From TrEMBL:
Record flagged with keyword Transferase: yes
Residues that span the membrane, as ranges: none
InterPro entries, alphabetized: Glutathione_S-Trfase_N, Thioredoxin-like_sf
Alphabetized Gene3D superfamilies for the sequence: Glutaredoxin
Keyword tags: Transferase
Domain GST N-terminal residue range list: 3-71
Molecular functions (GO terms): glutathione transferase activity; maleylacetoacetate isomerase activity
Biological process per Gene Ontology, one example term: L-phenylalanine catabolic process
UniProt superkingdom: Bacteria
Name under which the protein is recorded: Glutathione S-transferase family protein
Length: 71
């Protein structure tokens, strides 16, 4: 079985919640790494240079815009 998608972001963000609702509706397995983007480390900055959330990580594939993730 494939690893669940990793969603990096805060539950407080409406953009993160939008992605989580879509994943739940589609029955897609995910796990969330709740972070505060303003105090992230360098690893987060490499995934999202503008420090925006959410970030979807699937292996080496990374998306960091909620509208793109939801498509």
């Amino acid at each position: 079985m494939a690893e669940p998608l990793l969603i990096i972001g805060s539950y407080l963000s409406p953009y993160v919640r939008k992605v989580l609702v879509l994943l739940e509706l589609k029955g897609i397995a995910y796990r969330i790494d709740p972070i505060v983007p303003f105090f992230g480390d360098e690893a987060f900055e490499r995934l999202s240079p503008l420090r925006q959330i959410p970030v979807l990580v699937d292996g080496d594939f990374v998306l960091n815009d909620s509208s793109v993730i939801c498509q």
